[in-house]
Structures
1.
Amino acid sequence: MAKLIPISLSNLTNRIHFSYSPLTISFPSFNTTPNCSNNATNISRRLGLGFIALMASSVTAIPAEVANALDLKLIAPEQSLDEAESGIRRHAEALLQVRSLIESEAWKEAQKRLRSTSALLKQDLYTIIEYKPPAERPALRKLYSLLFNNVTRMDYAARDKDVGGVWESYKKMEMAISDILSRI
């Protein structure tokens, strides 16, 4: 069986050999060898070692979080039905509170609040839908889809500062939330 050796920068530099040989172009009427200095091999080695160091640091680096992006997580593995049911009304109310930001036309703040609260509501709704009997799921999934499609439309309308589009999406979102809460 092969012996595993831990990877370190010194092991890699000892095993990687950079070689350089000048290119020679020959034709019957044309002979040339490019003028290459010894610095070209040093640059290649530096670039190779820099690349190795960069790759080693990227493997061990902690991933950065994307700020204000839509969160695509659907269900928290540790979230129970009771937790989802207790949080759904609070998260739905928080999502509807975006109205005050829309009225004041604070578009960036409205987008940030919309994104952060919709992710929590999405998580709660998905958990509740998964715990419902199979016969009730299609109707709830349709309302779920309607709600979050309108959240996305409102986000895009707020980005474009389209007042009419924002209010239309808000009204549809409000109706979908009330339908969902009445069925749950």
2.
Amino acid sequence: MALQFFSMFLHPSRALYLTLTCAVLGVAACSSTPALNQAGELQLEANVATSNSLKILTGSRWEQVQPMDGSTDGINPEMRPALQLDENTGRFSGNDGCNRVMGSYQADMTSLKFGQMASTKMACIPGNDSVSRNFADALSRTTAYRLESNYLILLDAAGDKLLTLRKAGSSAPK
């Protein structure tokens, strides 16, 4: 009886189907099951959200729109502090209102930390030297960020706003 049972699988067409079925089941068994995060969501979705947030952060040039001291005085557009973060190298570059600046950074979905910053030492237009110092100070104290529409808001460890930057090329709300 057992021989009759096994002989039905030895028929060439059945043997092919059996082999293919085993192969498909073997591949399915070896594939990993997506992990769930603490909220019970697929980890893949969280990675996509992180990736999108980082793509926006690193795929844009950000220009300062509000002086750090909270004053309503406009910033000279030609000397406006600005940043660009390079996702591939983990480096940032831009200007602080007087000098070109560059350095390293680390970022994830909510945290952002700038490493030691290097800058050129050019003469500064009177009045812009405080903008330059305040910009550098804000970067050194940044530990987190928040994206709101076309705005990047740099935050300190207490969650207080240090600096507001707008995506270059976007217009201010009316």
3.
Amino acid sequence: MVTAYVVPHSTGVRAVTSSTRIRTNSLDVKYLDVKINFAERLVIKRMGNVTDDIDRILGQWARERPDLNTEAMGVFGRIYRLSRLAGDATERAYARFGIARADFDVLATLRRSGDPFQLSPGALAASMMLSTGGTTARLDRLEKAGLVARSPDPNDRRGILVRLTSQGHAIADEAVAAGLAEQQRLLAHLSPEKSAQLNALLRDLLGGV
């Protein structure tokens, strides 16, 4: 059953059915959607060339909250996404050598410490910004794999030293080259000048945090 609504008209009255009313509302909603989408694209266009999803997100915030300066959101949003992409890429590179990124951190820290490639667990943890408990779990795994060895510290009767084995040394060298190759691949579309400029800007940013 169709319900009729009587509304005033210049020449009297006219009946408007509920089905007509529903169609009108539907058209209004569609028009509103088009209007919102157009406004969003206009906001993004004013921000400059759209190159990634971050621009779309910033455009939405600019439409909804034009009082906010979202420049910082763009900077850190891109840093976060780049970190995830680079982390995943290097993780896959390290996996070819049977190690995870956490394992690589230990091997790389020992490798770059220089000959004799050994450190105390405390120094190792401090270099990686980890707790000694978190470091112990990694060392247990790596020692079982034959990549590191623990021995008593000759200068401290209660201390121990962690050193790279020959196998650990070889894997550290291969893994760091493979991981770096992935990072360079991600930067390949930038010129050397732009890459150096980006590095300098990030250094300045990090130094001020």
